[in-house]
Every structure is written in structure tokens, then in C-alpha cells.
Amino acid sequence: MAQPGEVLAAGGRVLNMLDLSDVTMTFFMPEAVAGRMALGSEVRIVLDAAPQYVIPAEVAFVASQAQFTPKTVETASERQKLMFRIKARIPRELLQKHLEQVKTGLPGVAWVHTDASQPWPDTLTVRLPE
């Protein structure tokens, strides 16, 4: 946040510290899906910067209240606009193994496995860097 020799105002930030062994992706799901989602559900993450890799994760958080909620929700079509914030956490062991390649803030797509009886499609089979 600050460069050597820079004068900071009171309360100014000197640096940011990140724990690269605790990385999550935040995404939003409609209430019809979020309502059936359980903590620990399987997730696959594909980052825009590295589309050749498919990263395994699991649902670690489901918001208790909807985002983007209309002021008055009276009809079924209005309720479909409710979106819930979900966080998927990448396993700590996997992050430790690939620590040199971990970046924060990268955009991507999260795929959630809502039916455990169905296998992941081949395109979402886990693929990681060597």
C-alpha cells in the first residue's frame, strides 16, 4: 500500500497481508438453487486466466439473506430474482502444494454439483498444474 519514503496520514495503511492458504471464491446463486445447497457441496472453479485448469473446492458459506432483493416480494417471478452469496473454499493442502501459483482477485466461473448421484462432466474433471 505504501512505498518506502512515503509519508502516511494517521491511520493510513502500510501493507496488506494475505493468507494464501485460505482462498475462497464468492459467487451468487438464485434462491431455488441456493435453498438446496449444503455446506460441503462440491464445486469446480475455472479461472479466466488459466482455463486449462479445473480446481476443486467446496461450499463453505451460504448467505442467510438474499442479495438483490426487491423491496416487496409478492409474486413467484419476483422471488426468482433473489440471489444468495455463496463462498467456495479451495482445500488448504492444494493451496500449499501450489503456493507459488496462487493469486487473489482473479475472475472465473464456479460450477456447483447439486446432484451427487450424477458424475461431473468430462470438461469439469479436476486438472491441476504439475
Write the layout of secondary structure elements.
Elements: E1 24-30, H1 31-34, E2 42-47, E3 50-62, H2 76-79, E4 83-89, H3 92-97, E5 108-112
Antiparallel strand pairs: 1-4, 2-3, 2-5, 3-4
Largest β-sheet summary: 5 strands, antiparallel
The percent range for strand residues is 25-35%
**Distance N to C terminus:** 33 Å
Helical proportion, percent range: 10-25%
SSE string, helix = H, strand = E?
Answer: EHEEHEHE
Q: What is the CATH fold-level name of the domain at 28-115?
A: Elongation Factor Tu (Ef-tu), domain 3
Structural class: mainly beta
Rg: 19 Å
CATH class membership of the domain at 28-115? Mainly Beta
Strand order of the largest sheet: 1-4-3-2-5
Shape: flat
Quantity of strands, as a count? 5
Total helical elements: 3
Overall pLDDT metric: 85
Supply the CATH architecture of the domain at 28-115.
Answer: Beta Barrel
Short description:
The protein contains three helices and five strands, in the order βαββαβαβ. By secondary structure, it is mainly beta.
Structure description:
The chain has 130 residues and is mostly beta strands. It has a domain at 28-115: Elongation Factor Tu (Ef-tu), domain 3 (Beta Barrel). It has helices at 31-34, 76-79, 92-97, and strands at 24-30, 42-47, 50-62, 83-89, 108-112. It has a five-stranded antiparallel beta sheet with strand order 1-4-3-2-5. A hairpin with a 2-residue loop joins β2 and β3 (50-62). It is flat and about 55 Å long.
